Amino acid sequence: MGDNPSRSENATAGDLGVTGRHARGAGTGVSPSSYEEPPFGGGGALPKKTRFGMEAGFKGLSVAAGAMVLVIIVAIAVFLISKAVPAINADTENFLTFNQWFPNETQPRFGIAVLAFGTVLTSIIALLVAVPIALGIALFLSHYAPKRLATPLGFVIDLLAAVPSVVFGLWGRDVFMEPVRNFSAWLNEYFGWIPIFGGDGPFGRSVLLGSLVLAIMVLPIVTSLSREVFMQTPGMNEEAALALGATKWEMVRTAVLPYGKPGVIAAVMLGLGRALGETIALALTLGVVFNISFNIIENGGNSIAANIANAFGEANETGRGALIASGLVLFAITLVVNMAARAIIYRRREFRDSAA
Amino acid sequence: MAKRIEASNVSSYYGSFKAIDSVSMVVEPKTITALIGPSGCGKSTFLRSINRMHEVLPNARIEGSLTIDDQNIYDPDVDVTAVRRLIGMVFQRPNPFPTMSIYENVVAGLKLNGVKKKSVLDDAAEQSLKSANLWNEVKDRLGRPGAGLSGGQQQRLCIARTIAVEPQVVLMDEPCSALDPISTLAIEDLMFKLKDRFTIIIVTHNMQQAARVSDKTGFFSIDKTGDPGRLIEYDDTQKIFSNPTEKKTEDYITGRFG
Amino acid sequence: MSLLERESSGVVMTTDNIRSQKLHVGLNIGIAAAALVVGLALAYGFGIGNYVLGVVLGVVIYLIGLQIVAGRIEGRRAARDRMWKTLIYAACVLAILPLASVVWTLISKGAGRLDGNFFGSSMNNIGARDPEGGAYHAIIGTLEQVGIATLMAVPLGVLGAIYLVEYGRGKFATTVRFFVDVMTGIPSIVAGLFILSFWVLIVSPWFNNGTPRFSGFAASLALTVLMLPTIVRSTEEMLRLVPGPLREGAYALGVPQWKTILKVVVPTALPGIVTGIMLAVARAAGETAPVLLVAGGAAAINFDPFAGGQQSLSLFVYQQAGDASRYAPARAWTAALTLVAIVLVLTVAAKLLARRNSLSK
Fold first, then answer.
1. Across residues A4-14, what is the average pLDDT?
2. Does A144 lie in the same domain as A4?
């Protein structure tokens, strides 16, 4: 495992605390006291390299910690599958296409279709709303606002990113639902001919509410990460653009946005990951209906995570297994999203780094 | 193409700090003017004042007047972006846009100006790269990242990018300070070539370079740290380096100071 | 002729066309006012909506009008510059409204139950008609669960990061790094399900006569899974910032690598590492979903994280939000305020610490 030879050989040779042949020596750290004796403690043969000691022990410990990550990931997959498979086997309907959720009956019938659809739908709407606004704020903080305003505002955004999702969910249900209901009714009245705004109500606990709450939740995260990448734009590239006669916006488009693109994609993907996996905020705001519909203003909507939270209380053994199976699907979706994000970032980074 | 620049009593500030004090000089068209002087004497600040890049920094402002063909570029109704297109700038460290290819770098300025036609852009890229003595080295890899070139090539790429928008004046802020001697020589050759088309003002720490390339030389200095920089002497390069009027200039040239 | 001139007249710069007109501020305000009036008139005139629609229409009309007028006066590029600037400012205002509402609601509604009873009692024997009841048990639960999770995640995470930075070469390290990235993206509910299927349903019955046992410790395990990748990543970043010469200096003195790491590298990076840990802790404290699945959520005070269900603040908020009692919302909001206070104190402290960190700046 490619140890740097100059490091390990010499370093271990001097490790007198382990061999115990010299009480103090070269190896006692960097404090001035280690100079009390000559560095190689009194002549004679050089100390032998020890076969097993603190060096190997510490290294082993850290390798084990690193390996733990792999173990956990594998364990997640293994244990979820082990609980999901019996439930899916007991399912009397097709797990992937059936769109109802009755896993607790003697003849369990459940499918992931509605839930997966709802999960993706709410997340995408949330990102469509949040990302443009988040990028706007990020640019405002990094390039438009005076520093005196940008610093505290950036700090506040960072703090908002830390607010737990249950708080946003509670706010969405207790405060935000009313205006969204009014807005939905208005949309329905004037734009009811567009299918997504159709229906006869009731409105309120809808995909729209859930998505908007999600949007407000991911907004600080996307903003805060994007702001950071925008601020890292090399000043000399910004100056180069300005010196070519670019306006401020053109400078942003020429120098800032292309430079920040991989970072922004990563931020958006992270936001998407958050939105896909968000549980409580959606459990509190969605109408929970098992029905695939693009109507976003009528009461309804559901998501994998929200369904787990809602249905967990009454689930029997097969019910739990079914929920775990749905969690497995969620895991797979987020995994795909994450890997896609990494792939994009690594590819873009190569283009840039091959350069530097 | 090339224009006459006249600075009168230009003082530049960063907030309350006065960086240069009352600089006046006239730069004739199609000449190379070198600005020399010790670090922190305000040469770069003055240079950046000429194309209004100075004011990019927060709280930076300027007093006095700077005219180009009798138009004061600091008049309130003057468009900053127009000034900067008129007066191009090459920076101390090569700064090609890292996300763009060589080709995209060269035509970046043209695209900003709304030129969209591929043939025009191709033409301009080739002409600019040829003018910058870079065409032969990069013509086979125009699609590769601009930042993948060597330092000297990058700097010539930046020069190509600057002259692609056809400015009238080219400002160079220590363009060779980050380059090796061979690349430096290449840039100096290029300056001689560009002199036919542009008015060039170059800030340099390297006095041999100033002596080699410039027609006129301005010597900036400061009395002590915290004082504003002043233009001590401005004359023909030959005169500055052989028989300067001011004692300070002579001290600096001969290496007794700075 | 020059290229720019050939393409379109008026683009090439000469000294004659460096001047341009600017949109007067007064005119800008005038357009805004007119747009607002027109917007409101449209909304009310046609009876299609209230003042909100009027303002929205006004903003849209303003943006269009601004683009047209500025385009005429200042030219296309300057007008576009102005348009984007306006949009960016508008994005800020738009985002601040709901976020400010969240903060305001949190404070105004949360203040209602900020009393001794709330912090001194549990929900034990509190019926639907009782206005009392508190979150003492939930606070205990959150502190214990997050505390235990931190104790498990920090050594693992820091050691893992040390492996990646100091020892990790080759394929195995790349794999670990990749899966740390993957793990960062695991939804919290999936972590909860994992612990549910692994610990609660399979392991815990061994200690509990064959019946699954929900416990605070299970919640800690789930939170550990969530904290681990965050800690590894932030620690890794901080360790990488430690200058190489510092390590080499220690090696040159004959200090063994493990001691160099523990005595030189880690202490140098410590403020940054602590910042990362505190942020991870803050995030874990706010997690609801995994706790909901594995902690059990008891109404009474339970100090023992290993036996019997435990409550947590975030779960308490969720449960009270779903409670039909008319006193439940007040409890939910006050608990939410308490939770946010804990999380924010941790976050602010972490940020302040980061600001004093000499390595990262």
1. 40
2. no
Contacts of A3 in chain C (CB under 8 A): 167, 169
Query: Does residue A328 form part of some domain?
Result: yes
Alpha-carbon distances of A325 from A79, A112, C223, C325, rounded to whole Å: 11, 9, 21, 34
Max CA separation in chain B (angstroms):
56
A309–B contact, CB cutoff 8 A: no
Q: Which residues of C touch B113 (CB under 8 A)?
A: 4, 11
Q: Does domain C118-356 have CATH number 1.10.3720.10?
A: yes
Sheet of B60-68: strand order equals: B17-27, B5-14, B60-68, B71-72
CATH number at residue B230: 3.40.50.300
Confidence (pTM): 0.85
Looking at the fold, whether A123 and A4 belong to one and the same domain comes out as: no
In the stretch 146-165 of chain B, residues with CB closer than 8 A to chain C read 165
Kindly state whether residues A192 and A257 are assigned to the same domain: yes
B117 contact C CB<8A: yes
pLDDT at B78: 87
DSSP secondary-structure letter at C303?
A: -
The answer on A183 and A249 residing in a single domain is yes
In this structure, what DSSP letter does residue A71 have? H
A61 is a domain residue: no
* Number of domain units in chain B: 1
Nearest-Cα residue of chain B relative to residue C10: B113
**Residue C341 in 3-state DSSP?**
helix
Residue A193 CA, distance from chain mean position: 37
Are residue A139 and residue A3 in the same domain, yes or no? no
The answer to whether the CB atoms of A259 and B98 lie below 8 A apart is yes
Vertex A346: Cα angle to A342 and A350 (nearest 5):
175
Q: Let me know if residue A265 belongs to a domain.
A: yes
Residue C37 host element (H or E):
helix C25-45
Does residue A248 lie in a domain region?
yes
Decide if B113 is inside a domain: no
What is the residue range of B54's domain?
A: 5-95+169-253
Give the Å distances, CA to CA, from C334 to A30, A169, A197, B50, B83.
Answer: 51, 15, 36, 61, 59
Kindly report, residue by residue over A95-135, the tens digit of the pLDDT.
Answer: 888 888 898 888 889 999 999 999 999 999 999 999 999 99
